[in-house]
Amino acid sequence: MKLTPVMEKYILHWGEMGTRWGVNRTVAQVHALLFLSSEPMNAEEITETLGVARSNVSTSIRELQTWQLVKVVHQLGDRRDHFATTKDPWELFYTIIEGRKKRELDPTMTVLRECVLESEQDKKTPVEVKERIKDVLEFTETLDTWHQQIKVLPKPTLQKLIKLGSKIQNFLGK
């Protein structure tokens, strides 16, 4: 695949952003390349296009599969695996949010619940510290509840809701 300067810029920036989101640069670049590609690509094509090691591409693809961001696509007459990702930014967003929730929010809520339960018997932890921990738990549980409600909304409804932005305050009252 021949990259245009715009495509290179996009892929490089996505790789840079990936590092800021806690994702390996090459993982993010492979995902960006597959997102821009009109056809599924095999690992050799990805390696050649990005100029990275084949082992790095394999590792990146496995990571993206773990996140359910890349799927294997078979092509008639070719024994190699080809890889593709959704081209829908909303679907990507939902997939990433679900993955982050499972890896970050759910374990955090579990530990916070344990801390709150243990703190009830704990005489040494100051009351204000116990309250702060409980507040963080309530905050994360509120986020989780919001997430559960939002994820079932049809995409057009969610798009309208987001576009409303601060105008929603008019519906809720000041």
From TrEMBL:
Pfam families in the cross-refs: MarR_2
Key words of the record: DNA-binding, Transcription, Transcription regulation
Keyword Lipid biosynthesis tagged: no
Keyword flag Transcription regulation: yes
InterPro entries linked to this entry: HTH-GbsR_regulator (IPR052362), HTH_MarR-typ (IPR000835), MJ1563 (IPR026282), WH-like_DNA-bd_sf (IPR036388), WH_DNA-bd_sf (IPR036390)
Domain of life: Bacteria
Domain HTH marR-type: 22-80
UniProt record similarity statement: Belongs to the GbsR family.
Protein name: HTH-type transcriptional regulator
Organism: Sessilibacter corallicola
